[in-house]
Amino acid sequence: MGLEEDLIAALDADRVVTGADELRRHGTDEGWHPPAAPDFVVYPRDTEEAARVVRVCKRHATPIVPFGAGTSLEGHIAALAGGVSIDTSQMDQILRLSVEDMDVTVQAGVTRRQLDAKLRPEGVFFSVDPGADASLGGMVATGASGTTSVRYGTMRENVLSLTVVTADGEIVKTRSRARKSSAGYDLTRLFVGSEGTLGLITEVTLRVQPTPESMTAAACAFPALDDAVNCVIEVLAHAIPVARIELLDDVQIDAVNRHFELALEVAPTLLLEFHGTPAETEAQAKDVEAIARTHNVLGFDWAADEAQRRALWHARHGAYESARALRPGAQGFTTDACVPISNLAACIAETKADLDASGLTAPIVGHVGDGNFHLAILVDPDDADELQRAKDLNDRLVRRAIGYDGTCTGEHGVGYGKLAFLELEHGPQALAMMRAIKVALDPEGLFNPGKVLGPAPD
Amino acid sequence: MGLEEDLIAALDADRVVTGADELRRHGTDEGWHPPAAPDFVVYPRDTEEAARVVRVCKRHATPIVPFGAGTSLEGHIAALAGGVSIDTSQMDQILRLSVEDMDVTVQAGVTRRQLDAKLRPEGVFFSVDPGADASLGGMVATGASGTTSVRYGTMRENVLSLTVVTADGEIVKTRSRARKSSAGYDLTRLFVGSEGTLGLITEVTLRVQPTPESMTAAACAFPALDDAVNCVIEVLAHAIPVARIELLDDVQIDAVNRHFELALEVAPTLLLEFHGTPAETEAQAKDVEAIARTHNVLGFDWAADEAQRRALWHARHGAYESARALRPGAQGFTTDACVPISNLAACIAETKADLDASGLTAPIVGHVGDGNFHLAILVDPDDADELQRAKDLNDRLVRRAIGYDGTCTGEHGVGYGKLAFLELEHGPQALAMMRAIKVALDPEGLFNPGKVLGPAPD
């Protein structure tokens, strides 16, 4: 039988889709990289069905591109060699929640907001917040993190166990539900950040956290970027467990002021969130305020109530939307890098100087406690010259971050957008190790070809 | 040239050792498994020298057994196939400390206490405390954890980057010093818990933590094990950031009372430590005490001062020593397992009943916040029947833990002592993935043969 017949036999006819719009959508992410449509989109509903699809693809030597919510940014889901997009959106069951063990097991297609709605009434929450309403499987695959990682960690620290389908179509559970283990190689973390190139993630067991009794927020503007970063370094050195500590540069503050009708001072600004008992959040905030005052803070603005707290974080989460509104019609060319925090102020300052010289506009936001920052370069998608200048700026930014003992991507991943930088960052021998692992686990190269390890497309 | 000549050419004659005592010592760990001496012990002083040694071993197709401090428990360092023990104790330099970035880079042979002495004056500390004065390289290799993991995490959460020598004798840095990254496969975590089977760890970059302003301790005894475990579950559900929360069973309490001349109530007991500002530690302790009272606590004893705090934790760290003193001349047959905390009380209760039926004596201590517990079974090493009963008890314990969705080892590792349980825990497909990775990175099987993935020795 042909591939299509086999896929239909593995699922049902109505879960094997070839409509042009569906194909196009499944090859298009939220980044600026050229999309590439798959030949089929399929919708398995559980691990067993997904394994059947993988076995069909293996039989037909057909590429497999795992698809979560399509919110990735570096071309992760582009079907560069065609093949079958496995859409996990119908794998949307929350399979098990244990408040005693503070863990939850979900199918890979469950999204962050869906999980949040389930957890909230139980008095627990899942901490990793990349902004987008990504699927949990996708968040594992890209090694996602976000605004709360400074306190609660990234996906790497919050995934306990995975169920994956291997290139042979076998089903593997990577680990037990024990909180820790030294029993053999860490298959779980190998899949975190593997971007669908080593197998298909079908179920995820995650740590959850008790919902804090009190959450408060503050915004504080500084005369210079250095002051803001030095304040953060000192906050961390004092072990103040800030839940979020986000940097917005002057351009980004201007953008959110305009878009959300706020009146924040246009200067490098930290947005803070505190979690704990009321006494704890009050003490944390006072301690941070005292530290900020020694770093020339211009003002320490409290979110007086829950509505103001939400408004502040709504503005932070709307950073990208507000940035795009600075230049209607422009596309956001987003990129991220991450450096040791002691190098962060210098890296951002040089990047801003480079940006000014390039004539481009790009607000900067950062998960500053992690040393991670993002640029959303606003480009006219029809202006080839401008796009090239944006690419060149990104290239210099990444090289600068690597030069500062940092990484070409703190959380967006490699996809096919950052292939060219992986050897520069890790060296040829480390890349050879990664390639050896890829070949060992996916000898025919069926899983998400052209991603993470290349080859780079033309 | 022969192997010995080549090793001497790679180092110096006085750093290639063949004395019988040295060989025996390097094949003998602190566990109960039969030792096996290597043919040579070598002492490289840096990564480059270590790489030279690995290249010599490769040329001679000679097994390589990495050696840290020799404190492992499951036969990790036994040279089952002979070969060269690479002792890292002369790789004892602390290479770089950044208090701003809260990280430190050390050579693999630096020990935990040596690091602590360096960090203390800087106002920071390294959190992972397995008890023994292990080397940091060894702690990475076994995926160590210990009493503080409930708050600060295991080695997995605290290793930022490694330098390793591959089976080809190449030098690879697994990652930049950025706090997080999504740039390619997680080679760092692949080496955490790899027990020297994938390559030789020569340098380690670790997260450090600010030293808490205040540290306080308490001990509380409960009428039953269930009460103690349920208290811990509720403490964690309230997000009280206890730094340590250790369980000692009645047998262990009796042992420490005798050995350290204490007068603790002989009952299942939690030892607690609190880190923070004075106000925080006081609030945490009060909250825990209130929770403990709802779980029938027999008494909540404060360590009134620093001397009492140290005495309590000295007793906890001397648990094994005090256990052995219960039966002079006996050897401790130590084992560990880890289960989801909701299954912990049942798993320990069944283990105690099994223990009673077996006629053996074994105090139980546990990192109860992680669901991890240890047995030190006291056996007469010359009594083959007793040793066999201990092995059978261990076998049933591990199967019980796996049946409770747990792991055959929470922190001691596999070595060659727990080989037989790995397939039971992970299933044949997961083991096949681990074997494929091993073959990909060490195709000739030179690194620590017979460990983690077997084959099991006769």
Automatic annotation (TrEMBL), chains A, B:
Pfam family, one: FAD-oxidase_C
Residue ranges constituting the FAD-binding PCMH-type domain according to the UniProt record: 33-211
Source domain of life: Bacteria
EC number: 1.1.2.4
GO BP term (any one): lactate catabolic process
InterPro entries the record matches: FAD-bd_oxidored_4_C, FAD-bd_PCMH, FAD-bd_PCMH-like_sf, FAD-bd_PCMH_sub2, FAD-linked_Oxase-like_C, Oxid_FAD_bind_N, Vanillyl_alc_oxidase_C-sub2
SUPFAM superfamilies assigned to the protein according to its UniProt record, in alphabetical order: FAD-binding/transporter-associated domain-like, FAD-linked oxidases, C-terminal domain
Keyword Phosphoprotein attributed: no
UniProtKB keywords: FAD, Flavoprotein, Oxidoreductase, Transit peptide
Family assignment from sequence similarity: Belongs to the FAD-binding oxidoreductase/transferase type 4 family.
Name the UniProt record assigns to this protein: D-lactate dehydrogenase (cytochrome)
Record organism: Solirubrobacter phytolaccae
